């Protein structure tokens, strides 16, 4: 298919106006302009994400832990109270059980949440989080039959989401220990 382009002479150069590099009145010129604008927008988005995404992840993860921890202080309020108690009971070989196990879980999750949200004592919070992840993930191995009898129960789904929390915790821990995102090509 052919295309008819009518060139107007540029008053200053005497050349056809469509030959200017920044001309957006032709398809190739418009394409270059749109490509530059899109590339610039993507670069600005990338810089924004590098600057703020890990802090946002840290704070959001902290809010989740803080929320789950605080509700465990009120007996009967947390849907995970029974599984938390049973898990701690099993992991401590019966030394810590019942309300004490739930209270220990509440304190641990609240401390983790506060360190992540505030950024204060972050390395301590990361160490506590590392230990807590053992307890957080344990129900998947300890109570598999109860959580997934013929598919995931509601409690099974509640515990299963902890995989995402664990992965997020790994990213936050890497950042807290010095890893950094950098801008660059994905090639």
From TrEMBL:
Domain of life: Bacteria
Keywords: Membrane, Transmembrane, Transmembrane helix
A Pfam family recorded for this sequence: DoxX
Sequence intervals crossing the membrane: 47-71, 91-117, 124-143, 163-181
UniProt-listed InterPro entries: DoxX
Span of the signal peptide: none
Membrane topology of the entry: Multi-pass membrane protein
Protein known as: DoxX family protein
